Amino acid sequence: MMFSLSRTLTLCKKEMKQIIRDPSSWIMSIIIPLILLFLFGYGISLDSNKIRVGVLVEQKSQPAHDFVQVLNGSPYIEPIYLDNRSALSAKLNAGEIRGMLIIPVNFAQQVQNRQAAIQLITDGSEPNTANFVQGYLTGVWQIWLQQRSQQQLMNSQPMIDMTSHVWFNSAAISKNFILPGAITIIMTIIGSILTSLVVAREWERGTMEALLSTPMTKLEFLLSKLIPYYLIGLIALIICFIVTVGIMHVPFRGSFTLLLLLSSLFLLVILQLGLLISTLTRNQFNAAMIALNAAYLPAVMLSGFVFEINSMPAIIQLVTYIIPARYYVNILQTLFLAGDIFSVMLINAGFLLMCLLLLFVVIFKKTRMQLD
């Protein structure tokens, strides 16, 4: 039987009518993505501002006073001054402060001998916050040393002058790289969970028998299940893009056309993954559970969206290469923060294209146009 474009379009119209009449499809494809986007944008932040740090000055002196002045001027540290170590330890144990900074008794003498040192103890129960405390206080210490050197007219013209610049995300705002990753999760939800239900729903409702009685080919059937959800996915992508750039002010430095093309590639991969699950299970509940574990959770855990892939064990890093979301996260973060870097785009698009072709071959072989 030959492929018919008119039959394919008719089947697509039938599928679109079912989607329109099913409120759960619109909730899953429009409402839930918006909720997730706002949760990721405003509810999750890796930034840490105004960390409370306990400070003990064991003996007042001019150098200690100068250092405290620099500490008070830091926009990232909220110093809590106490007069003994026991009080500092009690507040650290209670979680009221995230670190203890102790300026020793002989600090002035140490400064005079050019061997000054202070003690910093951080709360290691939250490693990220502990690293922030250490980094912020190291910066305060360097500023104080620089100011003291200038005041004493010593080393005012250093032989080496280090200037640091942050590329791509100059303000170092975590939201700017979290939200592109969140779009990946949203596209994964729309693509995998929605399509994981379509074939199973036909079998459970008994409408598959009616479809099999029509003169449709296997390719026409698969396309009719992919095209409508692909269009819904593109609508959701455009909505997410408008919210991310227009409302949450995440910079977008790439090409919107390239974004649509590469997003289409990823969306088709995920749609086919969901369709494969639906074809194999023929049960909506089982299909949804498998899609959750096979697509959504790996996208969250192993895509590099939240957890750095290079910090994972070697065996887990190898597993990430078969996760399509890994490549899409890289594409989106590059397009949003860096722009059209075609070397990055081609590598990631190549992997997605291989996934697309492989899944299509598997689905085509596993789809059976018969009742048994």
Task: Write a short abstract of this structure.
The protein is mainly α. The chain has 14 helices and 4 strands.
Any descriptors?
4-stranded mixed beta sheet, 4 strands, 66% helix, elongated, mainly alpha, single chain, 14 helices, 372 residues, 6% strand
Describe it.
With 372 residues, the protein is mostly helical. The protein is built from 14 helices and 4 strands. It has a 4-stranded mixed β-sheet with strand order 2-1-3-4, sandwiched between helices. Helix 3 links the parallel strand 1 (51-57) and strand 2 (77-82). The longest helix is centred in the middle third of the chain and has 31 residues, at 175-205. The protein is elongated.
Report the C-alpha radius of gyration, rounded: 28 Å
**Widest beta sheet: strand line-up:** 2-1-3-4
Shape: elongated
Structure annotation, total helices: 14
Instruction: Write down the secondary-structure element order.
Output: HHEHEHEHEHHHHHHHHH
Distance between the termini: 21 Å
Strand share of the residues?
Answer: 5-15%
Number of beta strands? 4
Determine the mean pLDDT: 84
Low-confidence stretches at least 5 residues in length (pLDDT < 50)?
A: 155-162
Q: Give the helix proportion (percent range).
A: 55-70%
Q: Which class best fits the helix and strand makeup?
A: mainly alpha
Q: Specify the biggest β-sheet.
A: 4 strands, mixed
Lay out the secondary structure.
Elements: H1 5-21, H2 23-43, E1 51-57, H3 62-72, E2 77-82, H4 85-93, E3 99-103, H5 107-112, E4 119-122, H6 127-151, H7 175-205, H8 207-212, H9 218-247, H10 256-281, H11 284-302, H12 314-320, H13 324-337, H14 342-366
Parallel strand pairs: 1-2, 1-3
Antiparallel strand pairs: 3-4
